[in-house]
């Protein structure tokens, strides 16, 4: 009995050291060496000078709210109080939920004030499963071009070219859908407007 207890304790200590300490250290070190930007959350810094990164403005991987009319707006978020990375998740409202239907209808009406003759892209009125999606579809970006161009005193063609520049295609040519990262697009828009 004592021999089995010692063996069990040794296995527990050894596997804890291997899988609880050594493995995480090796994986973390490899990630930092090979994929530093991705391992650290693909953070975006702005206004850096003299080789310094500047102020942290967000991550390429986590959406954030943009509500000013001169910016492209993200998808709605049901994460916590909205875009809450510590409380990621959807609303869990069923497609037949009266509350969800009313919110989508109200959002669509508000969005159509800027483009009365154009259908509202679905991703501008529905939240993603995580509530933290950093991207919108090219159609959602196109829908917002007129408003952003007017507010920024830029031509629609100039803003459209910016959207095209920030449109990413399918991964490996067949995975996912084309998308536009809202934070990167808005930062580039700020740089363009500052000229």
What distinguishing features does this structure have?
195 residues; 2 domains; 3-stranded antiparallel beta sheet; two-stranded antiparallel sheet; 46% helix
Protein architecture, described:
This protein has 195 residues and is mostly helical. It folds into 2 domains: 37 residues; 153 residues, no CATH class. It contains 6 helices and 5 strands. It has a 3-stranded antiparallel sheet with strand order 3-5-4. It has a two-stranded antiparallel sheet with strand order 1-2. Helix 4 crosses helix 5. The longest helix has 33 residues. The model has no long low-confidence stretch (mean pLDDT 89).
Nearest-integer average pLDDT: 89
Strand adjacency order, main sheet = 3-5-4
N-end to C-end Cα span: 79 Å
Low-confidence stretches: none
Gyration radius, rounded? 23 Å
Main pleated sheet: 3 strands, antiparallel
Structural class: mainly alpha
Q: How many E strands? A: 5
> Judging from the principal axes of the Cα atoms, what is the shape?
extended
Portion of residues in beta strands equals 5-15%
Helix fraction?
40-55%
Provide the number of structural domains. Answer: 2
**Order of H and E elements:** HHEEHEHHEEH
Separate helix tally: 6
